[in-house]
Amino acid sequence: TRSTRPQRMLKAVQKNGTKGNPESVISAIDYFCKHSEWAMNVGDEKGSILDSVVTEVNPSTVLELGTYCGYSTVRIARLLSPGTKLITLEFNPVNAAVARQIIAYAGLQDKVILVEGSSGDLIPQMKERFGIMTFDFIFLDHWKDRYLPDIKLFEECGLLRKGSVLLADNVICPGTPEYLEYVRNSPRYESKYYPAHLEYTKVEDGLEKSVFLG
Ligand SMILES: CNc1ncnc2c1ncn2[C@@H]1O[C@H](/C=C/CNC(=O)c2cc(-c3ccc(F)cc3)cc(O)c2O)[C@@H](O)[C@H]1O
Ligand SMILES: [Mg+2]
C-alpha cells in the first residue's frame, strides 16, 4: 500500500538529517514541510515558543499528548536535564513506529518513553505504570476536542500540582474553544496566549500556556 506522510517524512529525515543531531532532525522536518509536504508538526515558529517555555520550566516530569511523528518530542527532549525523561502518548501504531525511528535518529531514545495508546486510557495509569506523582509540564497537541476532557482527567487523577504548566497547540487553528473557555475562566488556572501562526503558513494560530494554581 502507498506510504503515509509520516513515513515519507522519516525518509526525508534519514536522507537530510545527521544521525545523533537533534537540530538537524528538526531542520530536516521543517524543510520537508516547507518544500515537499505540509504536515501538522508544531513547526519552527511555535516550536521556538515551546522551546522557551520548556527551558523556563526546566521540568523533571513531562507528558506530551499526540506524538504524531515525534517533531515536538525531539524539540522538548533535546532541552531536558540529564536523567529527565518525557512520556509521549500516541495511539496510531503507524505514526508511533515512525516517531520511534525519528526520535532514535536524533539520538534521544533514552530521554523518551513513547507509549502506544489513548490518552483517555493512559492518563489514569500514569501513577501506577510510571511512578509519576504530578507533571511539571504537559504539551497538548492531540485531537482538539480531547484537550478539555483530558485536562479534567489530569485534575481528577491528581496529576497536577501548584505550578504545573500546560501548553496547548492550535488554540486558534483548528481551535479548541471549549478548552480555552475553561482555562481562561477557571480560578484554578492562570492562562496566557502566545500569538503565532499555523505551522509553515501565514494563518493565525497560537499557544496557550496555563499554570495550575492548586
Ligand atoms: C484522544 N487521545 C489520543 N491519545 C493518543 N494519541 C492521540 C490522541 N488523539 C490523537 N492522537 C494522535 O495524535 C496525532 C493527532 C494530532 C491532532 N492534531 C491536529 O489535528 C492538528 C491539525 C492541524 C491543522 C490545521 C489546519 C488545517 F487546515 C489542517 C490541520 C494543525 C495542528 O498543529 C494539529 O496538531 C495523531 O498522531 C493521532 O494518532
Ligand atoms: Mg498541533
Question: Could you describe the 3D structure shown?
Answer:
By secondary structure, the chain is α/β, with parallel strands linked by helices. It contains ten helices and seven strands. The protein has helices at residues 5-16, 22-35, 43-57, 71-77, 93-105, 119-122, 126-130, 147-156, 171-175, 177-185, and strands at 62-65, 86-90, 112-116, 137-140, 165-168, 189-197, 204-212. The chain has a seven-stranded mixed beta sheet with strand order 3-2-1-4-5-7-6, with helices on both faces. Helix 1 runs parallel beside helix 5 (93-105) and helix 3 packs parallel to helix 4 (71-77). The structure holds ligand 542 and magnesium ion. The ligand CNc1ncnc2c1ncn2[C@@H]1O[C@H](/C=C/CNC(=O)c2cc(-c3ccc(F)cc3)cc(O)c2O)[C@@H](O)[C@H]1O is lined by residues 40, 66, 68, 89-92, 95, 118-120, 141-143, 146, 169-170, 173-174, 198-199.
Number of DSSP strand runs: 7
Sheet-strand content, in percent, reads 15-25%
Q: Provide the gyration radius in Å.
A: 16 Å
Roughly how much helix do the residues carry, as a percent range?
Answer: 40-55%
- Backbone structural class: alpha/beta
**Could you describe the largest sheet, including whether it forms a barrel?**
7 strands, mixed
Low-confidence stretches: none
* Average pLDDT reading: 98
Order of helices and strands: HHHEHEHEHHEHEHHEE
> Shape from CA axes?
globular
Q: Which strand order do you get reading across the main beta sheet?
A: 3-2-1-4-5-7-6
- The first-to-last residue Cα distance is 50 Å
